[in-house]
């Protein structure tokens, strides 16, 4: 499940951010200004990644139609047949929509080719 994978990545990124901020606090007196700016930029990038992962997790859980329960509530749904079918249906719907969009653009290209191809043929 993509949600659980994102949660694992989120834990690792939060841990890395905590380590980086701890190193920054410990070495504040001995770091150069450039080193401090680099460390602060690294912490800021970790924060951006964390917010984007949290947003992705929230979007995926809302797409599935249930809210997160505390203490690993998603893990009990991992082998659930209903959830597996619902996710398969969502994936199938996504592929159908992508194919319809691709087909629409193909048809528009063909229509333009036929329309403009007829005009070009008149001049020759």
Report the uncertain regions. Answer: none
Query: End-to-end distance, in Å?
Result: 59 Å
Strand composition percent: under 5%
What's the structural domain tally? Answer: 2
What attributes characterize this protein structure?
single chain; about 120 residues; mainly alpha; 2 domains; 3 helices
Describe the structure.
This protein is mainly α and 124 residues long. The chain folds into two domains: 1-74; 79-124. Helices cover 81% and strands 0% of the residues. It contains three helices and no strands. Helix 1 packs antiparallel against helix 2 (33-64). The mean pLDDT is 79.
Write the layout of secondary structure elements.
Blueprint: H1 2-26, H2 33-64, H3 81-123
Helix pairs in contact: 1-2
Brief summary:
The chain has 124 residues and is mostly helical. The chain is built from three helices and no strands.
């Amino acid at each position: 499940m993509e949600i659980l994978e994102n949660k694992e990545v989120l834990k690792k990124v939060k841990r890395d951010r905590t380590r980086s901020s701890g190193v920054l606090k410990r070495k504040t007196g001995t770091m150069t200004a450039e080193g401090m700016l680099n460390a602060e930029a690294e912490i800021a990038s970790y924060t951006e990644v964390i917010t984007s992962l949290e947003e992705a997790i929230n979007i995926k859980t809302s797409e599935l139609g249930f809210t997160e329960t505390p203490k690993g509530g998603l893990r009990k749904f991992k082998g659930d047949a209903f959830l597996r079918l619902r996710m398969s249906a969502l994936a199938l719907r996504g592929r159908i929509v992508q194919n319809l969009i691709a087909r629409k653009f193909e048809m528009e290209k063909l229509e333009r080719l036929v329309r403009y191809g007829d005009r070009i043929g008149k001049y020759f």
